[in-house]
Design goal:
With 220 residues, the chain is mainly α. It has helices spanning 3-24, 28-43, 52-67, 72-92, 97-114, 121-136, 142-151, 155-167, 174-178, 190-204, and strands spanning 207-209, 215-217. It is built from ten helices and two strands.
């Protein structure tokens, strides 16, 4: 690979990432144009580029977010394209954490857009992807697994996964958990209110960074 091609691929990746970020902050036709510009940049990146696996991951990431702006039928096709990019990324870099986590999320998105049953193979593949992520880095997909278990009405497994995410410092905020539609089935369970209350207590005691960069506990 020539130096010129290497530099050009790096510039295209950086520009594609920025276009993706810009697209996520827009809506309608503006967002669509930005996504398409990002995809053109991704497509121009050489397969010989040393960070090609990352380029495929970010390409899948962009497709995933584009899918979320579409109707179910159109979204399904874009989710499939995103899953394909994540899959090729993993074939190059089997331990790519982002591809494992977001690949699972894209599979869930595809399952929901197709409105398949909870025992459908798409849910199994999503779970496998999250478990792969957990093998790469503990806690990285625990919350995602908790959401899956909640969708399947597996309350005990959901609580265990939530606790695992919390133990590794990868639990969303109290507000995000309460508003997460994927957890709807377990919000009625007795332990859920207690769990949320425990999060609130911890958030009240959260450490703050002082001007010297040291952590200090809030006064009660």
């Amino acid at each position: 690979m020539s130096i010129h091609s290497y530099i050009l691929s790096g510039k295209n990746l950086k520009k594609a990432q920025q276009l993706t970020l810009d697209a996520r902050q827009e809506s309608g036709e503006n967002a669509e144009q930005l996504f398409q510009q990002a995809f053109t940049r991704f497509a121009a990146i050489s397969e010989s580029y040393s960070q090609y696996a990352d380029a495929l991951y970010y390409w899948g990431f962009a497709l995933f977010h584009q899918a979320q702006t579409k109707s179910s039928t159109e979204a399904a096709k874009i989710f499939e394209a995103a899953i394909s990019k994540f899959s090729v990324c993993q074939s190059i870099c089997p331990n790519h954490l982002g591809a494992a986590v977001d690949g699972g999320v894209a599979l869930l998105g595809l399952a929901k857009s197709k409105q398949v049953n909870l025992d459908d193979d798409l849910y199994r593949k999503a779970k496998d992807s999250f478990e792969l992520a957990e093998n790469i880095q503990l806690g990285s997909a625990s919350y995602n697994l908790a959401c899956m278990y909640a969708l399947q009405n597996k309350g005990d497994a959901c609580l265990k996964a939530l606790n695992n995410a919390r133990e590794h410092g990868l639990i969303p905020s109290e507000e995000n958990i309460i508003n997460d539609d994927d957890l709807q089935n377990i919000k009625k369970l007795p332990w859920f209110a207690e769990y949320i209350e425990s999060l609130a207590i911890v958030e009240e005691e959260i450490q703050e960074v002082d001007n010297n960069g040291n952590f200090e506990k809030k006064d009660s």
